[in-house]
């Protein structure tokens, strides 16, 4: 499966859209917002740009896309510490795969600009700021922008997605060695976890090298990605959610709704790294200095509208995975699959807590 051509968040503003089902991601972003704003402030104080280049990599198309950009712009032009040297021009680049619903972002821009204009009436800078926003479709595993044109890069919940399914999980005949699983589990052969890690190393190293060419000296990145706490891959965290999705697919197979061949050949292009793996790759590549590398958990008390936690997780995962699942299995199973998935998540949560962890990584270009 060609990930770049198929994978995308569910577009639009419907009930199953990413726009309507990204509250968990918004919560995480809000939890680290102060770090984002402080990092932008540090970059401005260090590099003193009159025209600042900002990129959001893996921007998707929901309400989260422009909210962080608005906060960054307002903080930069209203921060007394930066006056009178605050940027007067903002170049904002929104990146995601070509299949992303960029039209939804474009349709939101007039209201976004209106909000900035209203807020800007009271800003303390010398005259209005010029704000230029552009979409840059393409994979961030490779170069996207000209040399040294960016000062700050932000990426939220994107870098745990791999550029492809690791080739090392297939045998000589092209069959998956990870049968009955869609990700690394307790019964996966050692070659499977090794292949996933090798693919993550390759992708993350390419990401770092590409961004180091695009950032100015002293530029910084704030990266938020899913991970795991220890060296064991099959923990009761992010990997466990994939295990539940695998069980959901198996249950549909027993009902005759999924073919065995399809079930055995579906894998996710995902990897949850541990802290040590991230730190080692950054150190080895030598392009960046680690300013912060922290673990946090998103609170689970944000369920509303009478929706259970399992149902909310199911809607979130559906908004992210529907494009891949519908392409592989067909659209007919999507509704029943995520009904089953939500039920199983609630069932497991009643037995024992599931603890998906997130990494906050702040890097400075050397």
TrEMBL record:
InterPro entries: MeTrfase_7 (IPR005299), MeTrfase_capping (IPR042086), SAM-dependent_MTases_sf (IPR029063). This is Jasmonate O-methyltransferase-like. PANTHER family: S-ADENOSYL-L-METHIONINE:CARBOXYL METHYLTRANSFERASE FAMILY PROTEIN (PTHR31009). GO terms for biological process: methylation. Keywords: Magnesium, Metal-binding, Methyltransferase, Transferase. Belongs to the methyltransferase superfamily. Type-7 methyltransferase family. GO terms for molecular function: metal ion binding; methyltransferase activity. It comes from Nicotiana sylvestris (Wood tobacco).
